[in-house]
Amino acid sequence: MAEEGGTRIAINIYAKRTAKGEEVFMPPLVFDIDHIKLLRKWGICGVLSGTLPTAAQQNVFLSVPLRLMLEDVLWLHLNNLADVKLIRQEGDEIMEGITLERGAKLSKIVNDRLNKSFEYQRKFKKDEHIAKLKKIGRINDKTTAEELQRLDKSSNNDQLIESSLFIDIANTSMILRDIRSDSDSLSRDDISNLLFKQYRQAGKMQTYFLYKALRDQGYVLSPGGRFGGKFIAYPGDPLRFHSHLTIQDAIDYHNEPIDLISMISGARLGTTVKKLWVIGGVAEETKETHFFSIEWAGFG
User: Fold this and answer.
1) Chain mean position to CA 191
2) Report field, pTM of the whole predicted structure over 0.70
3) Number of C-alpha atoms within 13 angstroms, CB side, residue 104?
4) Which residues of 70-103 are buried (b: 16+ CB within 10 A; e: fewer)?
5) Is the Cα dihedral 285, 290, 296, 298 positive or negative?
6) Higher-confidence residue: 207 or 200?
7) With contact defined as beta carbons under 8 Å apart, do 152 and 130 qualify?
8) Which sequence spans correspond to the domains of the chain?
């Protein structure tokens, strides 16, 4: 897949160290709204996770950042469609790195943008108000500026305009954009190795190849935890289709036993929610990916 207009998705990954000293990646995040739109066009939906604890409605209507699966990042990176920024700093360290001079500069930029936005809104609303007055015959092209000002005062129009001004929030974080990351000095192969290392630590190296095989067949994949799987697969955009498959982690189906209790309960759950329960793996000899679907026959 070629890049669209040269756009590369900016992905931020925060790395933490466990008590054993192992490096673990936190969920990959995308903060740019234009990048999120492009990801959806490519069949990567992710999960919106931004919220405001003080606003209850934000628990339903979530916003940026968009949380991706590690498989999404791997696919984008291997197809040369993303710039992965690996951040090993703690949040406190990041904030401490913002000097007073840098903070003052950021504040000035924000205030300038805010004032320009307010000026544009005032002009737009005043022009809209004049157009309405002309439409109902209160004024015409010969009406003077003084007469317009008197009309505005009598109808409290200026106060209404000021109370209706809103703050336009930037699509991207200026602080996040300027953070120096360890990945700045890493090659694409180094980043690929770090991403695959997460799979080796979890012992699920082959799961990415299931993800890739399903994407190649046109499926859109999302996290499947709520349906008892690794992924759920949609035949198209999730806003248009229900998911059809619940896919489990990859297994070595020639040598690895399948737990019958898990298979039976998974098949029953899949049938109840009208999804196929799917297991799969990669054949060592041919490197081909194979899938097996299981249903609860005669259920209900």
Assistant:
1) 20
2) yes
3) 3
4) bbbbbbbbbeebbebbbbebeeeeeeeeeeeeee
5) negative
6) 207
7) no
8) 1-88+181-203, 100-164, 205-300
Quote the DSSP letter at residue 258.
P
Looking at per-residue pLDDT, the higher value among 53 and 254 belongs to 254
Structural tokens at position 73: 């990042």
What is the C-alpha separation between 144 and 134, in angstroms, rounded? 13
Q: Which residues, at least 6 apart from 214, have a Cβ–Cβ distance to it below 8 Å?
A: 221, 231, 233, 245, 247
What fold does the segment set 205-300 form as a domain?
A: Trna Endonuclease; Chain: A, domain 1 (3.40.1350)
Query: What angle in degrees, to the nearest 10, is found between the helix axes of 145-154 and 100-135?
Result: 100
Number of CB atoms found within 10 A of residue 247's CB: 26
Other C-beta atoms within 10 Å of 278: how many?
22
Q: Catalytic residues, which ones?
A: 234, 242, 275
Retrieve residue 124's tokens.
């737009």
Would you state the structure tokens that stand for residue 45, as one six-digit string? 């939906």
Structure tokens at 288: 């081909």
Q: Label residue 218 exposed, middle or buried (CB < 10 Å: 0-12, 13-18, 19+).
A: exposed
Q: Write the pLDDT tens digit of every residue in 209-233.
A: 899 999 999 999 999 988 888 999 9
- Kindly compute the dihedral angle of the four CA atoms of residues 76, 78, 80, 83, in this order, to the nearest 10 degrees: 60
- 207-216 vs 188-202: helix crossing angle, rounded to 10: 120
